[in-house]
Amino acid sequence: MSLPDETLRKILLQIQQTAVQSQRALNISVQQTAAKDRERRILQLTIDEISGIEGDVNLYKGVGKMFMMVPRKEMEKGLKVQEKELADDISNLNKKSKYLEKQFNDAQGQLRDIFHHTPKQQ
């Protein structure tokens, strides 16, 4: 039993669109993950530098076009909270990437199956 050409064409178009959308979303997700990872590394380096400072000193935090004096403990606490948020974001983006990769691979597999199982015309 074979499907009419128009139905087969619609199915192929839908599978191809799913594959393209998944690939685009996967690329965006990978780029976002890389950006968040860079931010997290910068925060880790900043935390390491602040931890290396002796004594209870005040630090300055950039707020818009000005700097506000902030106690060291408060600055460390804020940076650690930011780092945890970034780590959570990276984890969620990795899960999303795995899902999108699976979706893309499934669509590719469906296309491969359709083309390998179609009768060859002579």
From TrEMBL:
Coiled-coil segments on the chain, per record: 83-110
Any GO molecular function: unfolded protein binding
Gene3D superfamilies recorded: 1.10.287.370
Signal peptide range: none
Keywords: Chaperone, Coiled coil
rRNA processing recorded as keyword: no
GO cellular component: cytoplasm; prefoldin complex
Protein name: Prefoldin
Organism the protein comes from: Mycena rosella
